[in-house]
Amino acid sequence: MNVVSHGIDIVECQRIADLLSKHPDRFLDRILTPRERERADSLHSPIPHIAGRFAAKEAVLKVLGTGWRSGIAWTDIEITNDDMGAPLVQLSGMCEKVARDLGIDRVMLSISHTDTVATASALGLCKS
To answer: Which CATH code, of 2.60.120.200, 3.40.109.10, 3.90.470.20, 3.90.1150.10, is assigned to 2-126?
Structure first.
C-alpha cells in the first residue's frame, strides 16, 4: 500500500472537559457515533478517551484535506477497536466520498493519551 496523505492532531483533555461541562449531550451527540458514545459511557475516566477520538477525527480530516466543510459531519468518521485494541477507522457520508475521490482505500490510525493530552496520527493509504 502507498501513502496518499498524513494527518496529526493533539488535544488538551481540559478543553474536552470544559466542553463536556457546558454542553455534555449536545457535544457528545455531535462528536461521537452511537457506538463510540456507548464505549465512552462505559469508561471510568472517559475524558482522555473522548479527547483521543476528537484528535483522531481531526487527524483523519487532515488526511482528507477537507476540514469541516462540504457537509462533513464528525460522525462521518467512526473510530472503533479491533480485538487487540488497535483503532479502526470507518468512513461514511461525505468523508467516504472524499476518500474515494482521493484514491484512499484505508486509513491507518494511532491514538495516544495521558490524563492531560491526547494525540492521533493518521495515514491515508491506497492499494496502487
So the answer is: 3.90.470.20
